[in-house]
Amino acid sequence: GNCFPCPQEGCPMMGHYADRFPEKLKRVDQKYFLNTAADEPFATWRQKVFIKLSGVKKTRGDINLVYYDTQGNSKEYEVASGDLSQDDVYTQYLDVEINPKNTTKIEFRWNKAIFSLLWARLGAETVNIIHGADG
Fold first, then answer.
1. Residue 79: inside a domain, yes or no?
2. Which terminus has fewer CB within 10 Å in the chain: N or C?
3. Domain for residue 56, yes or no?
4. 6 lies in a domain?
5. Cα–Cα distances in Å, from 62 out to 19, 119, 129?
6. How far is it, in rounded angstroms, from Cα 2 to Cα 44?
7. Which residues belong to any copy of the Lipase domain (predicted)?
8. What is the pLDDT of residues 70-117, one digit of tens each?
9. What residue numbers bound the domain in which 30 lies?
10. Which stretches does DSSP call E strand in the chain?
11. Does the residue 114 lie in any domain?
C-alpha cells in the first residue's frame, strides 16, 4: 500500500511490459510491488474511474463504487473523500478484484459526512470506467 500513487517518473515495473522502462534498470535497491487480490485467483484488474457529480454544489463525504459479480460477491472501493464539488471530476485508479467479464452491476454510493447538510442529495451525473487487456 505504499507504492501508489506512483512517482512522476512512473511505477517500478515487473513482469509484462517491464522492458518499456529501461531507466528503471539503472537504479539500485529498488522495491517492486505486485498488487494482488486477497483471495484466489489473486488477479486484480486495474480500472481508471471518472465520476462527475450532480446534485448539491458542494458537500462533504465520500464516494464509493460497489462491484457485484455473477457469483453474488461484492467489493466496495473508495474513489474520493472529503470536500466534494459538483464542478470537479473525480479520477481514481482502482485495482478491482472482480473480473470485468463477470461484473453484473456497479453501484454508486455516496456516504454523507455527519456534519453535512441534512437535506443534501448527491448523485453521479456520469461514471466512466476504462479497462483493457493489460489493465
1. yes
2. N
3. yes
4. no
5. 38, 16, 18
6. 17
7. 1-42
8. 999 999 999 999 888 888 889 888 888 888 888 999 998 887 666 555
9. 18-131
10. 45-55, 58-69, 74-85, 89-96, 103-112, 122-130
11. yes
